[in-house]
Amino acid sequence: MKPLPSPPFVILLLLAVPLGFLDTATAEKPNVIVIMADDLGYGDVSCYGATSLKTPNIDRLSEEGVRFTNGYCSASTCTPTRYSLLTGTYAFRGERTGIAPPNAPAIIKPGTDTVASLLQRAGYTTAVIGKWHLGLGGEDGPDWNGDLKPGPLEIGFDTCFLLPTTNDRVPQVYVHDHRVPNLDPADPLWVGNKKPSPDHPTGLTHRETLKMDWSHGHNSTIHNGISRIGFYTGGHAARFRDEDLADKWVEKSVEFIEQNQNEPFFLFFSSHDIHVPRMPHERFQGKTSLGFRGDAIIELDWCVGELMKTLDRLNLAENTLVVFCSDNGPVLDDGYKDGAIEKIGDHRAAGQYSGGKYSVYEGGTRTPFITRWKGRIKPGVSDEVVCTIDLAASLAALTEQSLPKDFFLDSFNVIDALLGEDQAKGRDHLVQQDNGANGTYGLRAGKWKLHRYGKKTARNVVVETELANTQVPPFQLFNLEEDPAETTNVIGDHAEIASELKQQLDDIITQGRSRPESL
């Protein structure tokens, strides 16, 4: 028998072993940062083909990780995608999961398991920073001057710093945990759907004072020279400036990472860029040829860079899984005259795909999707189908947490695909929805894509103006391998395939779950 190696030699051997073969607990409990952009299209960043602007920080994530060509969100609007990401359940199964109004109560109820509560049980400290848009408070809605609960802290987050709704809806205040910070009791905050009395300036009554004009719908209460959806008064000391949102998200995220650098943490960095009103900080304005929409994209890229710098500075990059995604596809004119259409030039926000926000065409839900974990993920490109709804089951598998029977009904474990493992497989099917109220769905299964419409119009008026309100039949079938832009309906040539997909979609919707209970 050979003698055992001396202790110094053992140490040298350990130092030579790759990170992934060392401490199992460390390897399987990385920090997790999910960066969700807002309204970012497949073709909006340079690593996915954009040439009208450069996104070097997002490109770096791609170069150091896996860039997915078939990465999806589950819906083509914000609230349902965010609901599905956190709950691992298609939004059409929930109540009030369409685009949430300003005074919406908490949509995800206390007692609901979420990706945050899963990771809490695994020993993670959890935070959501940025846009929420999933409602706050009980059935009567938010108490803006009191405790805003239930909210994120009741469904698995240890802390939050939020834009409570979305910034084209009132109010323009932050929420820290359960309170609106800096609120003056002598100037209470009131939020409503009806115009208050006495008269307060709106986009209709004081349009000439606006620094960004509205094009449709966004003509109620004015704040910071921009009119919004809904009405509010008071809370002046608590109000923020649109231009400062990205800086605030980075500031609070860096604080959270620094405070939790010595223990596993989960950060949901929920950007508001590039949602309307697009009002990037002055240092980004005019930096692209695409107007404020393009400027907001490079502001988003800066945010990604600041998070990456923080990980590098704290030596956390090799123990942090970063997921970059978007809540839905692109939109140009979404209610404001910000030059998005006039300055689009040759830029293709959805890349080669049709449709965008509000649409079940590929452009509505196929978005940039990148994973990076330095030292663990081998850089490359993957064609596997992955979706934001799968983060719950995948992170549960990574951290060895079991999935409860009655939650995460549609979340699949695709962790091997997310980590770029050889021969790993993604999803074999995916349901895509619009805002939910229309009853319109898409079902992708392999190369086939079925559209089922609840209305007779399907095209997105604010992305493809030349195709606005195009009449469509109740069902369409596309071969994505031959026709990724979904231009030719082949349902007449493949009636049997269409019939099978119709039945599969109906089964998924009516059976109440698509994830096997054994998963």
UniProtKB/TrEMBL annotation:
UniProt keyword list: Hydrolase, Signal
Annotated organism of origin: Stieleria maiorica
Domain of life: Bacteria
Lineage: Bacteria, Pseudomonadati, Planctomycetota, Planctomycetia, Pirellulales
Family to which this protein belongs: Belongs to the sulfatase family.
Enzyme class: hydrolase
GO-annotated molecular function: arylsulfatase activity
Gene: atsA_45
Signal sequence bounds: 1-27
InterPro entries the record matches: Alkaline_phosphatase_core_sf, GAG_Ulvan_Degrading_Sulfatases, Sulfatase_CS, Sulfatase_N
The protein's name in its UniProt record: Arylsulfatase
